Amino acid sequence: MNKFCNLLGLRRLLEYRPISTRLTADGKEVPKRKNLENRITLIGTDNSVSITDLKNAENLSIRRELKLVKIQDVDAKTRRPIYKLMTNSEYHSEELERRKEKQESRQKNSIRGQKLLSISSKIGEHDLMTGVKKMVKLLDKQYEVKIIIAGDGDNASHTSERIYSVIEKNIKSSGQVVQKRNKGNSLRFQLLPLRENSSHTQNDLDSNKDKDDKGPL
């Protein structure tokens, strides 16, 4: 009799339960499996690592007034995205560093090669300006130019600095000076070309400015 009642109760339960509900043999509901699709690896401000879901991480960042930053799409080992909680200062510092690396990478990729020019500190004015024109041409062709000013004579240091100033002044429209240093009796530095996009943008701005100047006031 009891067995019959149990079967009858189970039948009624099945009739009124949604089809999607899973039951065990004795009529108990099977616990639903947790949805792990939104699970993430979260790195705290103290570099502690925890596993949570994205919604909880977002709520935590709001409560603590922190930035929730995605630092990796999918971890190869855990198959979960990685997020990090950052303070505003950490976030801005990280963003500046990322922009700097991106800019350096773009600039490095745009350089076609390197050229080395050696100049004596006793070089004449005419020969110096000829050399400067050559540097500008190389920079315009997106070459990095390494310069060595070889000191010669008692006043070599002062003369080398004067030559450096002339070069720096005349290549500004095509490049920039980096890594200036003294090594023995020589003064060394590199000339890096300006990015082509920057040059084109500046030319466009100058062109637009000229057009505006010609227009009515």
From TrEMBL:
<keyword id="KW-0396">Initiation factor</keyword>
<feature type="region of interest" description="Disordered">
    <location>
        <begin position="194"/>
        <end position="217"/>
    </location>
</feature>
<dbReference type="GO" id="GO:0003743">
    <property type="term" value="F:translation initiation factor activity"/>
</dbReference>
<comment type="similarity">
    <text>Belongs to the IF-3 family.</text>
</comment>
<dbReference type="InterPro" id="IPR036788">
    <property type="entry name" value="T_IF-3_C_sf"/>
</dbReference>
<feature type="region of interest" description="Disordered">
    <location>
        <begin position="93"/>
        <end position="113"/>
    </location>
</feature>
<keyword id="KW-0648">Protein biosynthesis</keyword>
<protein>
    <recommendedName>
        <fullName>Translation initiation factor IF-3, mitochondrial</fullName>
    </recommendedName>
</protein>
<feature type="compositionally biased region" description="Basic and acidic residues">
    <location>
        <begin position="93"/>
        <end position="107"/>
    </location>
</feature>
<feature type="compositionally biased region" description="Basic and acidic residues">
    <location>
        <begin position="206"/>
        <end position="217"/>
    </location>
</feature>
<dbReference type="InterPro" id="IPR001288">
    <property type="entry name" value="Translation_initiation_fac_3"/>
</dbReference>
